[in-house]
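Model it.
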Amino acid sequence: MSVPVTVSSKASSDLANIFDHHKIYNGVPKARQVVKDLLIEVRKLGAENRHRIGEELDGWEGPPAREVHKDVCLGGDYEIHYEIIPAYDIPTLISVIRVWDTRQDR
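Modeled.
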């Protein structure tokens, strides 16, 4: 069972920041490839039994209950924080909340 994945506006902004950062140091083609690879990882979150593999994060208690996980990807350089909706049940939607380059200050 595949689950639809959406990207929040904040996560989209994070991807734009990652692109801008890579563009400065590595050029546009590399920046474009990194963002493309991150979006592939985001889509993979919707695959069957893939969404609950990431570490569950504290600090997102309700009400209502929220189930937020962290997925570390692309060699440990990036974190994707995402919410599974509905929490602790069969998911109908996965919402990507944030995307971070772990090497940058947040």
